[in-house]
Write a structure and sequence with these properties.
The structure is a single chain. Strand 1 (4-10), helix 1 and strand 2 (30-35) form a beta-alpha-beta unit. The radius of gyration is 19 Å and the shape is globular. The strands form two sheets. Strands 1, 2, 3, 4, 5, 6, 7, 8 and 11 form a nine-stranded mixed β-sheet that branches. Strands 9-10 form a two-stranded antiparallel ribbon. It has 258 residues and is an alpha/beta fold. The protein has seven helices and eleven strands. The protein has two domains: 4-168, Alpha-Beta Complex (Spore Coat Polysaccharide Biosynthesis Protein SpsA, Chain A), CATH 3.90.550; 173-253. 37% of the residues are buried.
């Protein structure tokens, strides 16, 4: 049986990290927590679960998660966020693969989101498939901050696991709006740094497309008000992102005051 490492990056997660670590202890031989200098009780909570606790100033979502991967002792790594936990069925699926020696290079799983007091089964929030278990020699965290994702090398084998990754997401609409505003700022800066051009038509076109995809095509309307809000704030994130990208280019073109 091959051993499994688990990684979590955190900052001020004392209220959420417990269930995450409790579920990881059922499958992982070591748990690496990388903390971005929390000021609450996160460290004490983590140490009570017997994890390896590393303090590292925040490098960026992608960079911080790859930093965590580099601190693991085993080739196979399961990477979660602090507000996620493994369902019982997913735990059993991982343990079966572990007993077989992890025959695949990567493993995907469905993420089941708890949003504003209800579990969401449609729209962009379910099945919300994520690749979170991998051979670290075959993949790494990539994407565009803050929307990180694991990218595997070409030609690798991927297996989809039964069970859900339980994600306790936003507790209120205001929290969701605030996070989308913050994430759109990060995304716009990442796009600007990568030289991605700003097109005015994308401000509206991409926003409308995002809403239609989540609310209509992926049946978000079946989740009632929650489905509408998720589609709305996803569209708002797109609108803000491209508006902020355009602003960054305008600011670059403005002459500096003498």
């Amino acid at each position: 049986m091959k051993k499994l490492s688990a990684t979590v990056i955190v900052v001020n997660e004392e209220k959420k990290i417990g269930p995450c670590l409790q579920s990881l202890k059922r499958v992982a031989d070591e748990i690496i927590v990388v903390d971005s200098l929390s000021t609450d009780n996160t460290k004490a909570v983590c140490l009570a679960h017997g994890v390896t606790f590393i303090e590292q100033p925040f490098l960026g979502y992608i960079e911080q998660k790859n930093f965590a991967l580099g601190k693991t002792s085993h080739i196979h790594v399961l990477s979660l966020d602090a507000d996620e936990a493994l369902s019982d069925e997913l735990i059993e699926s991982i343990l079966r693969e572990k007993e077989k020696g992890f025959p695949a290079d990567g493993y995907t799983m469905n993420r089941y989101n708890f949003y504003c007091g209800q579990w969401v089964r449609h729209g962009t929030y379910y099945p919300d498939r994520k690749l979170r278990l991998l051979d670290v020699n075959k993949g790494k965290w990539a994407g565009q901050n803050p929307h990180d994702k694991i990218i595997m090398q070409k030609g690798v084998s991927i297996i989809h696991l039964k069970g859900d990754l339980l994600h306790h997401t936003y507790q209120s609409e205001e929290e969701h709006r605030h996070q989308q505003d913050r994430f759109s700022t990060i995304a716009a800066k990442a796009m600007y740094d990568q030289g991605i051009p700003s097109y005015s038509y994308k401000i509206w076109l991409n926003s409308i497309a995002a809403f239609i995809k989540g609310y209509v095509i992926k049946l978000g309307f079946l989740d009632g008000k929650a489905g509408f809000n998720i589609a709305w704030y996803t569209a708002l994130h797109s609108y803000w992102k491209y508006k902020k990208l355009a602003r960054l280019y305008r600011e670059k073109q403005q002459p500096h005051a003498e």
